[in-house]
Amino acid sequence: MKENQHTEFKESWHDEYTRYISAFCNTEGGVLYIGIDDKGEVVGIEQPKKLIEKLPNFIAQKTGIMPLIHLREKAGKEYLEIEVQPSAMPISVHGRYYTRSGSVTSELQGNQLNMFLAAKMGLTWESVIEEDLSRSHPSRPHNKLIADVFYKAGFMESWGRGTQRIIDNCVAEGLSAPMYEYKMGFLYLTFSHERVNELTDTELSIGSLQISHLLLN
């Protein structure tokens, strides 16, 4: 037995091995064996029962998922089999995302990470349509599950009007209309701070007058 896309061998457990859990979740799933060397030979582990008690909660705290952990034995030597299922949601460890390619586990960064997160959310370059969100437009929730929860909770009165309401409220407060942009599969909303600065300056002026009044009296 050799290491491959779905198999990783480790002679003993180290806490940083949660990156393999993340990688398996973010690709096709897999099994992390503890107590087996790189050649696929069972070397055994010390205090396996103690490790079984620790790992489920520890892995859940670090990754948010609960893998299946089995205690196996071969030739009188015990080892652990940590079975990880692929996840529909991106799984990270301390904010870092990992993936698996063959027998190699690597951290996703930059554009690779952006593309990975977009794909996990069901977005593709073809599905990201450039449209004017400042006008009436068809509603296309990027995350239908979250959109449905907000709609049923009453935070959304109707589909497809949220972007226009944000613009209307900003204009009503004397602010410039915010700008919507698609970048790397993500929607960015930029607000102008000009009016905010004006309000701050006014408040500071009023505060200075109040302080002067107190000092003079």
Report on this structure.
- With 217 residues, the protein is of the alpha+beta class.
- Helices cover 36% and strands 21% of the residues.
- The protein contains six helices and nine strands, in the order βαβαβββββαααββα.
- The strands form three sheets. Strands 1-2-4-3 form a four-stranded mixed sheet. It has a three-stranded antiparallel sheet with strand order 5-6-7. A two-stranded antiparallel sheet has the order 8-9.
- The longest helix has 23 residues, at 194-216.
- It is elongated, with a radius of gyration of 27 Å.
Secondary structure elements and pairings:
Blueprint: E1 7-10, H1 18-26, E2 30-34, H2 48-63, E3 68-74, E4 77-84, E5 92-93, E6 96-101, E7 104-107, H3 110-120, H4 144-152, H5 162-172, E8 179-183, E9 186-190, H6 194-216
Parallel strand pairs: 1-2
Antiparallel strand pairs: 2-4, 3-4, 5-6, 6-7, 8-9
By secondary-structure content and strand pairing, the structural class works out as alpha+beta
Radius of gyration: 27 Å
State the total count of DSSP E strands: 9
As a percent range, the share of helical residues equals: 25-40%
Q: Oligomer, anyone?
A: single chain
* SSE series: EHEHEEEEEHHHEEH
Strand-residue proportion:
15-25%
Straight-line N-to-C gap? 88 Å
User: What is the number of helical segments per DSSP (H or I, 4+ residues)?
Assistant: 6
Q: Low-confidence segments, ≥5 residues, pLDDT <50?
A: 206-217
Average pLDDT reading: 80
* Principal-axis shape: elongated
- Spatial strand arrangement across the major sheet: 1-2-4-3
The largest β sheet comes out as:
4 strands, mixed
